[in-house]
Amino acid sequence: MGASWDDVQEGMEIPTLEKNCSTQQLVYWAAGSGDFYQIHYDHNFARATGLENIIVHGALKHAFLGQLLHDWVGNEGRVKRVGCSYRGMDFPDEDIHCKGVVTRKYEENGEKLVDLEIWTENPAGARTSPGNATVQLP
Amino acid sequence: MSDETQESLITDEMRAAIGKESEPTTLEIDKTSVRMFARAVGYSDPVYYDEAAAQAAGYRSLPAPPGYLGTPVFDPNRRGVRQQAMMEPSRPLKRVLNGGTDIEYLADICAGDVLTSTSGISSIEERQGRLGEMLITTTKTTYRNESGKVVAIMTGTGIRY
Q1: For residue A35, what is the nearest residue in chain B, using CA coordinates?
Q2: Range of the domain at A83
Q3: How far A71 CA lies from chain B's nearest CA (Å)?
Q4: Contact between chains at B45 and A71 (C-beta distance less than 8 A)
Q5: B114 vs B140: CA distance, rounded Å
Q6: For residues A17 and B137, what is the distance between their CA atoms, to the nearest angstrom?
Q7: How many separate domains does chain B show?
Q8: Radius of gyration over alpha carbons of chain B, in Å?
Q9: ipTM of this predicted complex?
Q10: Tens digit of each residue's pLDDT (9 = 90 or more) over A26-54
Q11: For the domain that residue B146 is a member of, what is the CATH number?
Q12: CA-nearest residue of chain B to A50?
């Protein structure tokens, strides 16, 4: 059961999605996405490029924000747009809190739409992938 | 702002490439690839794993989760779009970062679909940032289904520094 447009209010926060990537999950992601850049699974390679550790793929955080929205709207709603910037690095075995707040509720071309501000947050509270999204709700 | 005495990082070759559409890429969506992607993200919604659940929810087959726009048909002999975006700047930049992703969805994408994408560089900018000298390339990729309908548009930002 997903959200209903009638129940949505501007300013409301949607349920947080909690993530914490194992290195194994990053390898699943490499295979699932086709992004095999070694800074995401090879410590020696990552350090040689100046990173302190392997880092979580930006596109995986984008996909986490997609899941945050999908899990909220359900299958009667649709995710229409998801966009985010990769502003800060996230590391394996650290919490990534995926969050969203409704910024606008409106109808357009007969569709019931909601715009949101979305982001991932690291354990220090920094927004490492800020962005925005549009969803359609029943 | 960049030092005016320094030559631009952006070469004539790069400038000439702005706005040019790439050759089309074929991308397949199949049930196994949807499941792999959904598993990698950590979805538990059965629509991404079980065809009966997907159809009961009104999809033609397993839907592509947000962020999944198919898997390019691999050809070891083809020079990809990625390489095109990696033209050498006037001074070498060693590192690459993904700056951001924005995807707009215009229709459902489901297992069994074959998409065709074309891609082009919409802008190249140079900036001095916290990483030093940076080259920021914005690429727009349009995905069409087999009937030619645009199903998704992705805008990606690549940073070289």
Answers
A1: B71
A2: 5-20+58-136
A3: 8
A4: yes
A5: 19
A6: 31
A7: 1
A8: 19
A9: 0.96
A10: 999 999 999 999 999 999 999 998 899 99
A11: 3.10.129
A12: B95
